[in-house]
Amino acid sequence: MATGLAASPSRRGFAVGAAQLVAVVALWRSAPAAEALPKMTVTRDPSCGCCGEWVEHVRAAGIPADVVEVENVVPLKTRLGVPEALMSCHTAEIGGYVVEGHVPAEAIKRLLAEKPKAIGLAVAGMPVGSPGMEVPGQPPQSYEIKIFSADRQHVFARYRGLQQI
């Protein structure tokens, strides 16, 4: 005979319903965050393969991206205020910021969330292991992501491959 300690069918139903409600609210709250990411426009040289790999990296991270191919990206970099020492192979624009080179998607998301007063982020050169620059059999290099403005630049983050260090 039941002692009253076991959950009644109505209590079980309530518990299941409450769990489902929590799951629905969690999904509903996370969905707008993904939708809130602005579209990125990436300008690149059509013959550069690593740029395409980087675009796939940011898209896989949930950042929508359009690609514009031009023969010479330097005039755009200059117009957007990318310092010559930070120039790389492609330039992106997102949410009012410039993203130069192989910047990991997580750093871009952090930039968009924190909204610092800056022109943008850059990974100078093409470090092995950075997004789009993975080389089978070669360990990833450590590299710095610089945040820059017209008169200043400093380290925003340090990475090795896709891992922040």
| Strands side by side in the biggest sheet | 2-1-3-4-5-6-7-8
Sheet of most strands: 8 strands, mixed
Q: Which outline best applies? A: globular
Structural class of the secondary elements? alpha+beta
* Estimated share of beta-strand residues: 15-25%
Regions with little confidence, pLDDT below 50 for 5+ residues: 14-34
Quickly count the helices: 4
Helix coverage percent of residues? 25-40%
Please tally the β strands and state the result.
Answer: 8
Describe what is shown at a glance:
This protein has helices at 9-35, 49-60, 74-80, 105-114; strands at residues 40-44, 65-69, 90-94, 97-100, 120-122, 142-148, 153-160, 163-164.
Walk me through the topology.
Blueprint: H1 9-35, E1 40-44, H2 49-60, E2 65-69, H3 74-80, E3 90-94, E4 97-100, H4 105-114, E5 120-122, E6 142-148, E7 153-160, E8 163-164
Parallel strand pairs: 1-2, 4-5
Antiparallel strand pairs: 1-3, 3-4, 5-6, 6-7, 7-8
Structure, described:
The chain has 165 residues and is α+β, with helices and mostly antiparallel strands. Helix content is 34%, strand content 24%. Strand 7 and strand 8 form a beta hairpin. The chain starts with 8 loop residues before the first helix and ends with a strand. About 13% of the residues have low confidence.
